């Protein structure tokens, strides 16, 4: 299957003759729990506020969940920095690195994790700012008694995806209790309704606690040691309405508690809401950065808003229905697809690019990794929901000045996007982050996906400056040598286990830079502007993808890669130092994630097969499996595409809520994600993954978004593909498709 020209226009996937029953499709995958799953509390949210609920529907029993599953209330705007008495600035985290032909340039580079222990500037710059949890909301009694988990029996918890309501039923001390929990779609507000005889007879109610900040931050940023109570100020207090100003160092936010009963301050950092002699209680807890935005609308109107929002979410946009398939995996794939859409709407559709754990917990201090942005959210445009993706693109526009300054510091044009970053736009010191470059074309990809979905000239106007600045970097950053433009050194590809000071021309990145530059030229043409001559010169001179013995190399600078990978010392078990056949096989992305124009499909097929025979897949990540499925689909191997979606590996375990964990081999965990680096989680009392493995997080949302991108390509096709659902086998699969935009 030849690589198609990039000027081919997408044609929407043909809708089925009978419309998909969207409600049936969604509700057959409602989440139902009849016991605590220690690894899978249920999430509610709206993209900007996430609320993680235990078996009671609230956050009553955090001790019942794993050390990596804190019960948090997190907002996209909820960030904090520890005091900085030494006045560390970005400059304190920079070191000069030799760049061939350009002299020394400043990078936020740590040569080892030990550097963070000897240089406190690195530690502060990595750890700040960080995400915090705004509250903990749980059940309580009006006399101050806490609930005893031993008295909870017969739980049945249902997340109704169609309405966005979490209904939790159980008995407590023999009495029935029902808790219905929702998150408002446009306000950062948690809504709770409790019905039980205990509400009237024993004062069962809701407690709202406002935590301080745990110095460790990862995975749980909450602290209830009492120190945080000093920053709690009541600014208004009435019988059923209290307004609070919360101050944590330089972070200030406001919260309002509105209840149908009586509100009392029950502790230095807490408030309780109890009913006045009735067996039903409603409570709304709102959060905002502005004091005048903590007033809540009527409870009934808020319930209607939640229901309308989720009805519309599922009724509009794209859908894929596998009912009628005879392949026994079809129902499970459909479940993963439905739940991934929900989880992405909750965690990956806010005003900032998502962090890898979304609004569930912290890793890397809650900072987002820009190279993951398409895996989180690119699917949204492909599935007819470009407005979700567009919520986060203003962050790039708002940080253009910072990105231009970073490019200028390196003596190149355009906008240089950081890798590990918070809302302020500053790169974080790291062994890897400063040399990662595959995030650089992402703004062009994301803008192009939106354009393909909407075909509205206004899209070109909104993002023209972003596309132009990004393309300027892509054209000016490569280093000219011997008549061509090289990517690196320094450089670390998406497969992160290479020496940054010697690596040049990763196969995926050279094709991605070219694809994005050509796409930027097409943006100019669409706007009636001429092609840029300097961009065309770069397109003509960017180094070709490196190949040896008929196989694509991950990077040009390691020509013996495949000989070593195929050796007895490395094949399928890359523990030795010389073995590079682990981590992401990202070179496959050159003909999957994008349609690399210079890729020979036959050579890529041989390379794909070499990966299958030799790769140590034990230390692959959640997005690797959909990524490989995309490549298999473009190669005309739909059976392999489906097989890779179901790879039986540690990071491809899909839990009851649709989340996948992040698990690392012990032999590489300290190298990749030591606890001191902010990504390694915490020690677990019980290892759920067995000897030789270490779980670092209970969720990894790039798994969900990449699955949706892959299924979108497999079901909706891509430019130049033919036939219905070209990425799925014809036998065993009935694939009904609505509203998908083909991939590039």
Secondary structure: elements and pairs:
Elements: H1 22-27, E1 31-33, E2 42-45, E3 49-53, E4 73-75, E5 79-80, E6 95-99, E7 103-107, H2 114-118, H3 120-127, E8 130-131, E9 136-141, E10 152-160, E11 165-172, E12 175-183, E13 189-195, H4 197-201, E14 204-209, E15 212-213, E16 222-223, E17 232-238, E18 241-248, E19 251-259, E20 262-267, E21 270-274, E22 280-288, H5 299-315, E23 319-321, H6 330-347, E24 368-369, H7 373-382, H8 386-390, H9 393-398, H10 400-409, E25 420-421, H11 442-454, H12 457-476, E26 479-481, E27 484-486, H13 507-526, H14 533-541, E28 547-548, E29 551-552, H15 561-565, H16 601-614, H17 624-634, H18 638-645, E30 662-665, H19 666-672, E31 693-697, H20 702-716, E32 736-738
Antiparallel strand pairs: 1-10, 2-3, 3-4, 5-8, 6-7, 9-14, 10-11, 11-12, 12-13, 13-22, 14-21, 15-16, 17-18, 18-19, 19-22, 20-21, 23-32, 24-25, 26-27, 28-29, 30-31
Helix pairs in contact: 6-20, 7-11, 7-20, 11-12, 11-13, 12-13, 12-14, 13-14, 17-18, 17-20
Structure in words:
With 744 residues, the chain is α+β, with helices and mostly antiparallel strands. The chain has a domain at 34-80 and 129-314: putative glycoside hydrolase family protein from bacillus halodurans (Beta-galactosidase, Chain A, domain 5, Distorted Sandwich). It has 20 helices and 32 strands. The protein has a nine-stranded antiparallel beta sheet. The longest helix has 20 residues, at 457-476. It is globular and about 85 Å long.
């Amino acid at each position: 299957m030849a690589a198609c020209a990039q000027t081919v226009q997408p044609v929407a996937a043909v809708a089925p003759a009978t419309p998909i029953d969207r409600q049936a499709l969604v509700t057959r995958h409602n989440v139902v729990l009849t016991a605590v799953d220690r690894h899978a509390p249920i999430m509610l949210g709206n993209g900007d506020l996430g609320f993680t609920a235990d078996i009671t529907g609230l956050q009553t029993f955090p001790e019942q969940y794993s050390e990596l599953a804190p019960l948090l209330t997190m907002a996209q705007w909820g960030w904090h920095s520890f005091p900085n008495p030494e006045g560390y600035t970005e400059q304190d985290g920079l070191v000069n690195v030799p760049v061939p032909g350009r002299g020394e340039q400043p990078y936020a580079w740590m040569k080892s994790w030990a550097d963070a222990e000897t240089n406190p500037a690195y530690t502060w710059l990595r750890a700040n700012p960080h995400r915090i949890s705004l509250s903990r909301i749980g059940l309580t009694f009006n006399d101050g008694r806490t609930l005893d988990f031993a008295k909870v029996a017969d739980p049945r918890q249902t997340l109704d995806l169609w309405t966005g309501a979490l209904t939790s039923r159980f008995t407590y001390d023999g009495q029935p209790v029902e808790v219905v929990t929702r998150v408002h779609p446009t306000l950062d507000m948690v809504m709770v309704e409790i019905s039980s005889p205990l509400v009237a007879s024993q004062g069962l109610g809701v407690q709202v606690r406002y935590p301080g900040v745990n110095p460790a931050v990862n995975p749980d940023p909450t602290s209830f040691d009492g120190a945080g109570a000093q920053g709690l100020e009541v600014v208004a207090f009435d019988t059923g309405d209290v307004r609070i100003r919360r101050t944590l160092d330089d972070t200030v936010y406001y919260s309002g508690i509105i209840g149908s009963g009586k509100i009392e301050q029950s502790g230095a950092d807490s408030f309780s809401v109890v009913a006045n002699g009735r067996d039903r209680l409603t409570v709304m807890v709102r959060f905002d950065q502005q004091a005048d935005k903590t007033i809540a609308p009527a409870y009934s109107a808020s319930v209607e808003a939640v229901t309308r929002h989720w009805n519309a979410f599922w009724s509009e946009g794209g859908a894929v229905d596998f009912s009628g398939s005879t392949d026994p995996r079809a129902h499970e794939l459909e479940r993963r697809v439905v739940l991934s859409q929900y989880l992405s709407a909750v965690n990956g559709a806010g005003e900032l690019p998502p962090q890898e754990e979304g609004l569930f917990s912290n890793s890397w201090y809650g900072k987002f990794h820009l190279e993951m942005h398409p895996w989180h959210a690119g699917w949204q445009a492909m599935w007819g929901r470009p407005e979700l993706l567009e919520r986060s693109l203003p962050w790039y526009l708002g940080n253009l000045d910072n990105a231009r300054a970073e490019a200028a510091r390196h003596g190149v044009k355009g906008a240089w996007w950081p890798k590990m970053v918070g809302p302020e736009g500053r790169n974080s010191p790291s062994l890897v982050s400063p040399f990662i470059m595959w995030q650089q074309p992402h703004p062009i990809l994301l803008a192009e996906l939106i354009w393909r979905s909407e075909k509205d000239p206004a899209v070109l106007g909104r993002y023209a400056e972003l596309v132009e600045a990004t393309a300027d970097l892509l054209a000016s950053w490569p280093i000219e040598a011997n008549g061509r433009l090289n990517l690196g050194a320094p450089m670390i590809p998406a497969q992160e286990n290479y020496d940054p000071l010697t690596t040049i021309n990763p196969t995926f990145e050279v094709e991605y830079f070219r694809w994005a530059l050509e796409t930027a030229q097409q943006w100019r043409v669409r706007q009636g502007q001429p092609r840029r001559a300097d961009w065309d010169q770069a397109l003509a001179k960017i180094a070709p993808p490196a190949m040896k013995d008929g196989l694509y190399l991950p990077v040009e600078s390691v020509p013996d890669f495949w000989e070593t990978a195929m050796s007895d010392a490395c094949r399928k078990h890359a523990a030795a130092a010389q073995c590079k056949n682990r981590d992401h096989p990202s070179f496959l992305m050159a003909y999957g994630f994008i349609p690399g124009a210079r890729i020979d499909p036959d050579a890529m097929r041989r390379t794909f097969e070499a990966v299958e025979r030799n790769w140590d897949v034990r230390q692959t990540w959640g997005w690797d499996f959909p990524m490989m499925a995309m490549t298999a689909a473009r190669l005309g191997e739909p059976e392999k595409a489906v097989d890779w979606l179901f790879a039986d590996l540690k990071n491809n375990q899909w839990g009851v809520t649709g989340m996948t964990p992040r698990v690392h081999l012990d032999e590489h965990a300290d190298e990749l994600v030591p606890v001191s680096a902010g990504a390694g989680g915490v020690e677990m009392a019980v290892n759920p993954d067995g000897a030789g493995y270490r779980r670092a997080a209970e969720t990894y949302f790039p798994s969900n978004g990449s699955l949706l991108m892959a299924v979108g390509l497999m079901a909706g096709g891509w430019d130049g593909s033919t036939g219905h659902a070209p990425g799925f086998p014809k036998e065993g699969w009935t694939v009904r498709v609505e509203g998908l935009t083909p991939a590039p």
